[in-house]
Each structure stands twice: as structure tokens, then as C-alpha cells.
Design brief:
Shape: elongated
Radius of gyration: 25 Å
Oligomer: single chain
Structural class: alpha+beta
Strand order of the largest sheet: 2-3-4-5-1-6
Number of helices: 10
Length: 292
């Protein structure tokens, strides 16, 4: 029966809903490569002023790795600056974008029909701005995009808005976000239940051998649940795994905790609080009084 319940929780945890991140595209055209390079630095400074972090798309790539890419993809990788900004909102609303320079039509970007852009005036910069949320841009996303456009117009750049931000749909945003939060909570609880069954059960079994009171056994089980079992989200390139805190501590240590705190903010201590509450309940219900 317990196995069936666990399988049900795992099934529910996989019921999250995917979505396509909305994006807007702006093209900024120039009369020369020098003008484009100067403008690129000015736009990067503006993005930093708007609290975006920036890094070259090719960061971490070796020359050998770049040489294996097709010529057009290599060009985009080596001539793109990525920028992003995390949001502390309950429903994550992170921003991400790319600033890519195109000096000539040889490696021009593709239009929605999959054909190379021919109507653009080269050289130009292409700015792709995305908000990682369902239901279109938020009010904050529209404000940031408007601030960026205002800056470009103040500089008297020749700009072409290729695609506007999609209209906001707050009902769709709430529906998808709530579905994914519930699925994440189910997955977190499943990971906690498995860890507590193994580590908590082994701890209680070991303490039964020692001459300790039921109260001490319960306190130790609670400590095990909080310090060792608490599942933490560990992102990888494609998936995010819920791993017990003991594994995170052994494999990563303080640097990983700092990265997780920056990525998830207040959600991280909330995981330990929730684990503590569940551990207290588990200790009271499952650690039985020794009849002897």
C-alpha cells in the first residue's frame, strides 16, 4: 500500500505543464561596423544599469569546440552577448535575452518562415528579449522592454521592432504556474518521504539497540529529517533534481548552497522549515514507545 501511494505521488509530480517563453525582438541598424560596436557597448551598459547580468555566449567554449560548429552557428555564438535577470517573485519571472551583431548578410538570422533576412540594413544588432513565464509578459516585463526601447530612441538609433511583446494573460499565467508549483511540491514530498523512510528508519532501528528513551529517539529522527533528508532543488543543464541535503553537502558544500540561495531565495529556508514540520509529525507517529 505504501509503495502504491509513493507511485501515485511520483505520478502526480510529473504532471507539470510546459510552456513557450514569450519574447520580443528588436533590430538596430547602423551605417558602419564602428558605429555598431560603439552602440553594442552602450546597450550593454544600459542592460547592466537595469540590473541584468551579462556574459559572452561563447564563455566556457574552447576553440576546438567552436570549430566543430557550423559556420553560421559559430558566428552567432562568438558574436552574441547573453543577458539575464532573476526575479524574487513567488511565481518565477526571470528575464533572458541575447544581443547579437551581424556585420554582413552571410550569417543573417532567419525570419519566422525559416528564410534568411534580406530586408535588413547591414550591419545591425539584434536584441532578443524573453520573460520566462507563461501567459505573456508581466507588467514588469513590459516596463523593462519599454525602458530599453526608450533608451534606443534617445540615442537616435535606427530601430525596427521585429516582434512586439505578446499580450499578457494573467489567468493563463496563474493556471500554469500553480499547476507547476503543485507538481513541484508533490515531487519534493516524494523525495522527502523516500529519504525519511531510509535514513529515518535506519536511525530509529539503530537507536532501538541503544538504551535511549523514546523522546531522545524522536529528537534524533527530527534532526536527521532536517539536516540530512531535506530535499533541495539541484538544477542541471536539462532537468532539476530533488536531492537530499546530505548529498548536496557531500558533493558541493558551501559554494552550491550559495548558488542555490541566489537562484531560489526564500524558497530554500522554506524547504528546511517544511522538512522540520514533517519530521516532527513522522517522529510522533512512527517512533513508537518501547514497551520495555
Amino acid at each position: 500500500m505504501r509503495l502504491l501511494a509513493l507511485m501515485l505521488v511520483l505520478f502526480v509530480s510529473g504532471c507539470g505543464e510546459s510552456y513557450v517563453a514569450p519574447h520580443a525582438v528588436v533590430r538596430v541598424e547602423f551605417g558602419s561596423d564602428v558605429e555598431m560596436e560603439t552602440a553594442s557597448h552602450e546597450i550593454q551598459a544600459k542592460l547592466a544599469e537595469l540590473d541584468f547580468e551579462l556574459a559572452p555566449e561563447s564563455q566556457g567554449w574552447s576553440e576546438d569546440m567552436l570549430d566543430e560548429l557550423p559556420p553560421d552557428q559559430r558566428w552567432r555564438t562568438t558574436h552574441t552577448i547573453s543577458f539575464w535577470r532573476h526575479s524574487g517573485a513567488l511565481f518565477r519571472e526571470d528575464f533572458r535575452g541575447d544581443l547579437t551583431s551581424y556585420a554582413n548578410p552571410e550569417f543573417a538570422p532567419l525570419n519566422p518562415e525559416g528564410e534568411a533576412i534580406t530586408e535588413a540594413h547591414f550591419p545591425f544588432l539584434e536584441i532578443t528579449f524573453s520573460q520566462l513565464r507563461p501567459g505573456g509578459f508581466s507588467a514588469n516585463g513590459n516596463r523593462l522592454f519599454a525602458d530599453l526601447l526608450s533608451f534606443l530612441r534617445q540615442k537616435n538609433y535606427e530601430i525596427v521592432v521585429v516582434s512586439e511583446p505578446p499580450p499578457s494573460d494573467e489567468r493563463e499565467h496563474f493556471r500554469v504556474a500553480l499547476t507547476n508549483i503543485l507538481a513541484t511540491c508533490a515531487w519534493w514530498f516524494a523525495a522527502w518521504a523516500v529519504g525519511m523512510t531510509i535514513l529515518g528508519g535506519l536511525t530509529d532501528w539503530g537507536l532501538r539497540v541503544a538504551p535511549v528513551s523514546t523522546r531522545v529517539r524522536r529528537v534524533v529522527v527530527v534532526c536527521i529529517g532536517v539536516l540530512l533528508v531535506t530535499p533541495l532543488p539541484v538544477p542541471t543543464m536539462f532537468l532539476t533534481f530533488m536531492l537530499p541535503n546530505v548529498i548536496v553537502a557531500l558533493l558541493g558544500g558551501p559554494p552550491v548552497y550559495m548558488d542555490l540561495a541566489g537562484e531560489y531565495g526564500a524558497m530554500l529556508p522554506a524547504a528546511f522549515v517544511a522538512s522540520g514540520c514533517l519530521s516532527v509529525i513522522a517522529a510522533l507517529l512512527l517512533v513508537r514507545v518501547d514497551p520495555h
